[in-house]
From TrEMBL:
It comes from Novosphingobium mangrovi. The keyword Acetylation does not apply. This is Sec-independent protein translocase protein TatB. The keyword Transmembrane helix applies. Pfam families: TatA_B_E.
Length: 142
């Protein structure tokens, strides 16, 4: 980083011992270590902020590309009809207008409840019917 060689580092240590003195040298090294640690922490924080900004910029670019690709795909695929559009031709068809349409679709539980055979034993029948309807079980074979 600073390209300091061994001979230059030895020269700095000798000057420091002469100027500071051997008695205050440990305290000076501790202080220098704290300053170096603070500088590293600040540079690491700065670097992480720059990295976060780069990641956000890359994400925005990717989201823009994905949006453009999604729009291109949506334009190229045919539009599927909605449920209302599909119901309109069925309701206006002449052959189906004579038939009555059920008010609610048949679910497995209503089917099971409607197709239950009458119970042979009066005490056991209703409890079994409700259990089968709750569990959506098909009726037992005859």
């Amino acid at each position: 980083m600073f390209d300091i060689g061994a001979s230059e580092l030895l020269m700095v240590v000798i000057v420091a011992v002469v100027v500071i003195g051997p008695k205050d040298m440990p305290m000076a090294m501790r202080t220098a270590g704290r300053w170096i640690g603070k500088m590293r922490k600040i540079s690491g924080h700065f670097r992480s902020g720059i990295d976060a900004m780069v990641r956000e910029a890359e994400l925005e670019e990717m989201e823009k590309k994905w949006r453009e690709q999604n729009e291109a795909i949506m334009r190229s695929t045919p539009k599927l009809p909605t449920a209302e559009e599909m119901q309109a031709p069925i309701a206006s068809a002449p052959e189906l207008s004579d038939q009555s349409t059920p008010s609610e679709p048949e679910t497995p539980s209503t089917f099971a409840a409607e197709t239950q055979p009458p119970a042979a034993d009066a005490g056991d029948g209703p409890a079994k019917d409700t259990r089968q309807a709750e569990l959506h079980l098909p009726p037992p074979p005859p």
